[in-house]
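Minutes, project check-in
Item: structure for the 110-residue chain
Input as provided by the requester:
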Amino acid sequence: MKDYFVYMVRCTDGTYYVGMTNDGDRRIAEHNLGLDPGCYTFSRRPVVLVYSEHFNDVWDAISSEKKLKGWSHAKKSALVRGDWKLIGALANPRRKARLSDRSPFGDDAA
């Protein structure tokens, strides 16, 4: 049985790159070595691994990678911090709207 990893790196410009590999250490090193000038991370090096998840099934890994690639920067940042409450809020548009209606001062008076 093979191992697969979905990973997310933070680039020097603050953006995230999501990918999938069967060798995490090698793949992160490849990003940082800049082997492919056409790669998103090439001009954004060095990159830092901020998230990874292990899968035994390649299709589960592919599905997870596609899902994460579709997430907003805010949602990816929440994942990196482990802020599951915010991830849930960002996933639910009605709840997100309620959160944005709140006062920035911590009370509900807008």
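Outcome recorded: DSSP finds five helices and three strands in the chain.
No further action items on this chain.
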